[in-house]
Amino acid sequence: MELFLNDSLGQITLEVEEADNARAVIIIAHGAGAGMHHPFMTSISGLFVARGFHVARFNFPYMENGKKFPGAPKPNIETWGLVIDYLCVTYPDLPIIISGKSYGGRMASHLLADQSPAAVKGIFYLGFPLHAAGKDSKARATHLNAVQVPQLFLQGINDQLANIDLMREVLSSLPAARMLEVEFGDHSFKVPKASGRTSKEVMHQLVEVTTEWIDTVLK
Q1: pTM, two decimal places
Q2: Is the pLDDT of residue 6 over 70?
Q3: What is the total count of domains within the chain?
Q4: In 10 A of CB 85, how many CB atoms?
């Protein structure tokens, strides 16, 4: 079902796919350059629904307004809070797991570093964008120690926006966090033919590992 929420910046599109006998709600935010209807977003959402989760996707305000770039992070972080609040009211008996592709996950982490909504039990990142391409740095990870819920990082080893050695250093300071390293994977988890795997197989791996992690978090 597609809904429209209103915040101080205007209308926000929210889409929820429901599963039978869902055990949790997963919220997934899009990356910086593609909205909630990007094929990656719809594909991974469908796989999680098949695993027994309600899945919600939404657009950040800049995407709703037809802009190409995110701009200041504050309104996007605030939108995360609005969406979480709405889904807490809509599904009061279900725990919530939040996530995002690249930029969307980074904005979610900033929200959780500042506040800890009781219903949110964990966060997983679909390619945490640790730095800009060619500008290796850990500066974008300094707030992650303030996140109070379990964290799962799904990272391609060949991700140009997250040097895998630096990601390992980040994880070493986050005792409650885990990381899946996708062999040959880039920032979008695409793998070369020489890897012997298909993008579809990688997507299923992401969902399988994440589902197992969620079940552990919710015990």
Answers
A1: 0.94
A2: no
A3: 1
A4: 13
